[in-house]
Write a structure and sequence with these properties.
three-stranded antiparallel sheet, Knr4/Smi1-like domain-containing protein, 266 residues, TPGS2, alpha+beta, 24% strand
Length: 266
């Protein structure tokens, strides 16, 4: 019952969808309080309360399912994954070095800190992350080579870190969720479809993933569907019908009785 409540009954929903098979939930032991305390001491931050209660109940979360494209072609595509607590690590080791590197230096460092503006796609407003030398960014998951899901502490004293998507190529921040609980519910609402976080990115979904969305959850793409921006003109008038002349179907000319008798006499 714990995992059913944690996943909000997602397994039952997926089992009722045609072609979805092998719905599997990996059960894990909870973390000890000493493990949570050791993680917080190592990184000099406090886990938010909801995230701490999550890891004291289960050390991560792994839920996946497969889709049957054909009788002989079954592939694992759906996946909701939260790593073990010990696997949540900093995106960068020394933020002070990154901040002090001059643009003219030849030292190659990941310029994550240099782009601190992000676009909240839900409101369309441009917000600013107050990142500084004391900020901490933890990686929750990686989406291929396209983006990283990050837990962002603007300051170590912050008790409410937010979840952001960091686009790898453009190094832009996209806001995902206000809290860990909200991010977990978003992953469940998106059925664990592959790369669902990219719905909130500027690069968008890959074509094959978008096809799965259209098959299994088209309502999740409605707000981003360009077709909704088009004005559909409704005309109340009856459409013009073609009027056919029955005479076009006559292959023989009508002739009088006298003409017929003359032909017979000849």
């Amino acid at each position: 019952m714990f995992y059913e409540n944690l996943s909000l009954g997602l397994a039952k929903v997926l089992n009722n969808i045609p072609r979805i098979t092998n719905v599997t939930l990996e059960k894990r032991l909870p973390c000890e309080k000493a493990q949570v305390t050791a993680w917080e001491s190592r990184h000099n931050v406090y886990l938010p309360d909801d995230m701490k209660r999550f890891y004291l109940s289960t050390d991560g979360f792994n839920f996946y399912w497969s889709y049957q494209y054909s009788p002989n072609d079954v592939r694992r595509v759906g996946h909701i994954h939260f790593p073990h607590l010990i696997q949540i690590t900093l995106v960068r080791d020394n933020i002070d070095t990154i901040l002090t590197v001059s643009p003219n230096t030849t030292l190659t460092v990941p310029p994550i800190i240099r782009q601190s503006n992000y676009v909240d796609l839900s409101s369309g407003n441009l917000d600013h992350l107050n990142l500084n030398s004391r900020s901490k960014i933890f990686e929750l998951s990686t989406i291929a080579n396209l983006a990283k899901v990050c837990l962002v502490y603007e300051t170590p004293e912050s008790s409410s870190p937010k979840i952001f998507l960091l686009e790898t190529n453009s190094l832009r921040w996209q806001f995902l969720a206000e809290s860990f609980t909200e991010y977990l519910r978003m992953s469940i609402a998106h059925l664990g479809l592959p790369y669902w976080e990219l719905c909130f990115s500027s690069c968008g979904l890959p074509a094959w993933t978008e096809q799965l969305f259209l098959l299994l959850a088209p309502h999740l793409l409605e707000k981003n569907d360009n077709r909704r921006l088009k004005n559909i003109v409704c005309i109340n008038e009856n459409p013009p019908y073609n009027v056919l002349d029955p005479a076009v179907f006559r292959t023989k000319l009508r002739c009088s009785r006298q003409t017929q008798k003359m032909r017979l006499n000849n």
